Amino acid sequence: MSSTYSTAYTLRTDAERSNKRKVASAFLALLFAFALLFFVFGRGPGSLTWLSGGRPPAWLPFAGSAPEWLPFVSAHGDSGNNPGGAAPTPVPAKPSASPSATPEPSPSATPEPTPTPTPTAEPTPAPTPTPQPVSTPSPSPLPVVAPTPTPTPTPVPSPTPTPAPTPTPTPTPTPTPTPSPTPTPAVTASATSNVTSGTAALTVNFTGSATGGTTPYTYSWAFGDGGTSTARRPSYTYNTPGTYVAQLIVTDARGNQGLASVTIVVRPAIVVSAGASPTTGAAPLPVSFTGSATGGDGGPYTYSWDFGDGALGIDLSANPTSGNFPLTVNFTATPAGGSGTYTSYAWTFGDGVTATSTTPTASHIYTAAGSYNATVQVTDSTPSNVTSAPLTITVNTPPLTASATGTTPTSGLAALTVNFNGAAGGGTPPYTYGWDFGDGSAPVTGLTSPATSYTYNVPGSFTATLTITDSTATPKTATATVGITAQAPVPGIGSVSPPFGPETGGTAVTISGTYFENASAVKFGSKSATFAAPTCDGLGNCTIVATSPAAAAGTVNITVTTPGGTTPATNDQFTYDLAWNSLTATGPSGREGAAMVNDGAKVVLFGGSNGLTDVSDTWTWNGTAWASSTATGPSGRQGAAIAYDSTHSRAIMFGGDCTLLVLNCSLNDTWVWNPGTNTWTQAQANTASPGGNQPSQRSGAVMVFDANRGQVVLFGGYTPGLLGSTYYNDLWVYSFNASKWTQVLASNCASTTQPACRAYGSMARDASGQIVLFGGADAGTVYGDTWTLSGSTWTLYTLNSPGARQKAALASYYHPGGGNASGLVLFGGQNGSTVLGDTWTFSGGRWQQIYSAGAGSPTARYDASAAQDTSGGMLLFGGNSGSGLDSDTWLIK
Prior knowledge:
By secondary structure, the chain is mostly beta strands. It folds into six domains: 1-171, no CATH class; 188-267, Immunoglobulins (Immunoglobulin-like); 310-396, Sandwich (Immunoglobulin-like); 401-487, Sandwich (Immunoglobulin-like); 492-576, Immunoglobulin-like; 580-892, Kelch-type beta propeller (Neuraminidase).
């Protein structure tokens, strides 16, 4: 009979697959023919033993090249089990070169290569035998011709398979690409046991488990004393004391392994020994028993006696048996013998306290140090009783401890007063206390209470330490600390002297205030100043001397910075002087009460009094020189009010005093100055009966342009009379286009919502448009109040201001440098018989004196004329010094 085999194989590339298939087909045909001839003719009657179930002939090794092969499976079953009586066929080794045999048709259903059998001393098979189905061996051997090697196999088409008498061959499966293997997680083993320690003989139940790898797992235990097991959950008994490491090896289906272990501690078994004395005697026989034990955990042990005669016995145990007071001890009585029914337990704790119970347990608190013998007496139902042997309880004094709890506050502004407190624990009272406050001051000791107080005057962080000492023979001490932070308080400025200085800087300014300690900076506005170390009195009151830096004219805030913060920048100011300059210019003759205004292009001065009469000349100032104007206009007068209407580019002048023989007279005519033509035009004539279209005749009124209205407003003044003068506090507005006045507020000298009736006050508008009125006088009072006007509402300023005065020169100024260098300048004035020569500025809602009367400024005078110069400063002319009229010209800027 013949056997048919099928082999699945995989070719690396399409071209290689085609070439190798052809070579394989030729080689297989040649090999089949060679084998058939060998079986039929090779060895006589023995040649057919393979076909009948005997051993196959030996195979020759094959030298040459062949395709890569996959293992094949017999169509008749597993060759290892050899079903159906087929002889096993070895899996061919992987060839390394192409076969040299001549290719011929293969009898198998699918072409496949077969290894070349090893030749023996037999006839060589025919070169090209034709494959035939074989059923019986030939009785006569035929000559065998050896195959002729061919360097390159010739492709031969695969012949149509010839059916064999055996079952239908299995078709060759289609080659399937082998996927890349997915990495398998490592095997992780775990070993646990129900107990890890105990006395011999100790039985331990082990459990093994695993994760990762490929299931199923196998388990291998080595228990550390030579014992082993392959069970997953083995139970093992250790008979010998010792420490053992039980190791588990888990192996997965691929042979990967994981290792785990568990340690088992086996202690010696408890060995009990007992003794008695005496062991014989006449009843009743007292016997003293002793017992001892070894092994196990080494103690402590509890003992229970059974005397064998049913006598009552008891044992006492406690937990704990020592510790610091207050110590809570739990007692347990273990009775034995007697009737077996125990009715009561009488406890004696050794510190004078006893108790009874019906249960074998009791609890007691020891509150003092000492060694105490506790016993328990048990009574059974007969009734009989027995008392246990004493059990010693040792109570110790707890160690001394200290805490600084209750200390408040722990932070705050220096000077910080802290109330210290603390507490002692353990040790032996009474206690003594001491505090070290951590700031270098001397500690306080010997206190009988932890409570005390201390003030930290200097800012900083401190650690205060409480020390407690007890009263034992050998005193013990304990300490506790508490952190204290005394923060630097926010500094404050009280005064600045002097409050002014030149723009060039260099003024030594003394700044007085509080909490300047550790000052780090002094600033004048945004500019830093040099300064000396502050001088303080220990109570927070300090002074610091700083040198003003150079800065533009104007008022600035001074600030001092310390660790506690920076002084508020709203109250304490320093003014850089608007320096006075005396101008050597020839101009108007000496006079007082002249009207002067800036007409938008130059300064215009009109009239005034030369001491004998009122003059009516007009002068102009171009910034460098005076020029006399030929313009004709108003009659001579002094005390007239004048302002520039920037809406209509005209200067408006109203009223004033006139000299009529020896009596003063007053005017209420209105004149308009045209800056373009340098001419005067009368808008309203003087009249004693104005009829509501113009104010009454008056002198000493003040006038200013209201930018919000776009009109000039006039306030106050007075009208002299034979029986007394009349003073006003009314408010009027001039309409340029209608050439008429309109009263806004009527005169009401009793009103508290508008300035008091007065004349010769000073009124001007600052750079922000705010209208400011200062001072003036009536028949009996000289005023020093400051008011601001908004619309028709007056507001009284309650801040510091210059001293009371009338006829002071007031005008606005501005500094080309900008910033806070814009405001008003007030100079001189009169209070009674006193003629003043000081200089003040009003800026940011505050008055600030920048010059006292004296060197560097005009001589004291009143009724001088002032207006803003074209350069931005204030131009001052003339006035009355009290001893004569002035004709000098000054500029402050």
